[in-house]
Amino acid sequence: MTSLAARILSGDVRAASRLMRNVDDGVGSAVMELRTLFPHTGRAYVIGITGSPGAGKSTLTDRLVAGLRAQGKTVGVLCVDPTSPFTGGAILGDRIRMQDHATDPGVFIRSLATRGALGGLSRATGDCIHILDAMGRDVVVVETVGVGQDEIDVAQMAHTTVVMAVPGMGDDIQAIKAGILEVADVFVVNKADLDGADRTVRELRQMLELRHAVRAPAREHDARHRRARASADEGPSPEVKAPTGPREWEPPIVKAVASRDQGVKEVLAAIEQHRAFLDETGQRAVRERARAKMQFVALLRERLLREGLGRLERERGRLEEVAEAIVAHRADPYALAESLAQQLADG
Taking the complete model, does pTM exceed 0.85, yes or no? Predict the structure, then answer.
């Protein structure tokens, strides 16, 4: 029988769906398939869509997909939905809202459950991005669950991160708390036909200006430190200049009413401008290294945790039994964790 990986490389949608399900469920055989696919990845451009619940992420994603398809690009969509408390699976709200693309062979939509993961993404998200990449999709759109302050992991997964805000929902406060200013490449003020849209735009601009004001003294301090070090090493020299550093991207703020398809072309244009910026400055490679690092650490953490829990069960009993011993103070959790970590390090 032809492997799932081989079928995916030939564009088989059913094979991709099955492997994604296996990845999401933690089926062991999925790892070998992913290893076969990995050499064929690295071509897709990844766009992350994030923001507070109710900001219209699914509607904007739907419209962006339509715009990308009009450009002749094939698209993969990963919708990270809340986990059902009953089944542990994804609540498929996003797929319901994207029925217009259901029959388009150039669009592949998959819902993933967060399964309790922090940061707004499922652990399987990175693997599913690789599957869609190997499948030949030009663009992969990752729409996060919209959990609020922890939802910044998408910035490490995506080349371009679109952060959505809406008037009257306190998104300015959420942005400050979540560090959204640091992860946003494009801001979209959706539902711009509502009162307060211009105020939201002004507040975002003020926060961006504040970020510049905070960063400028730090850059000047670094420059003085480099000049002083150069003088100490080589003696005073008028030729020593403060390095200008890499050119910075200024996140544009786009007003949109996604439900009416207003402002969507401008959002796509902003994403394309950011893509060109990343390519021109070499920042795309930097982001891809950050994504590789994040995914590798996640894989390593999962592997070590699995091995650690397996060893714990073999030597001390099931996790529930160990927890009961800790509660009864028959076991010291700190000493137990240290001992287990040492055993894993020693092999």
Answer: no
